[in-house]
Design goal:
- The strands form two sheets. Strands 2, 4, 5, 6, 9, 10 and 11 form a seven-stranded mixed sheet that branches. The chain has a four-stranded antiparallel sheet with strand order 1-3-8-7, with no helix packed on it.
- The chain is mainly beta.
- 0% of the residues lie in helices and 53% in strands.
- The chain contains no helices and eleven strands.
- The protein has strands at 2-7, 11-13, 18-26, 33-39, 46-52, 57-60, 68-72, 78-83, 92-99, 107-108, 112-117.
């Protein structure tokens, strides 16, 4: 079992920055891959970024590449998403997720709301 709790979401102006955090605990093996997802109203959930702890490799959705950075503390307990140059289309509920691989995420947080106004 893995527990995940997101924080840091708020309302910002376009061009601003936000730092989302996800505090995790539980099975290390089930947190091999950690990711951030988002869902905007009326749209499907999409993966924003993921971090594979074994290799340190990362993935970014093309719409956020170069603006967002995913990272994790040395203990592997806190996942961070640094979001810069925010755009209105970044608005949505952001979820932290964990899995034993990066293809399927078994554990999810409750989400934190990000609203970017123009």
């Amino acid at each position: 079992q893995v527990q995940a709790e997101e924080s840091g979401g708020e309302s910002v102006q376009a061009g601003g920055s936000l730092r989302l955090s996800c505090a995790t605990s539980g099975s290390t093996g089930s947190r091999t891959c950690m990711g951030w997802f988002r869902q905007a109203p009326g749209k499907e959930r999409e993966k924003v970024a993921h971090l594979y702890s074994f290799s340190g490799s990362t993935y970014y959705h093309p719409s956020v590449a170069g603006r967002f950075t995913i990272s994790q503390d040395n203990a592997g307990n806190t996942l961070v998403l640094q979001m810069n140059m925010l755009k209105p289309e970044d608005t949505g509920m952001y979820y932290c997720a964990a899995g034993s691989n990066c293809l399927y995420f078994s554990y999810w947080g409750q989400g934190t709301q990000v609203t970017v106004s123009s």
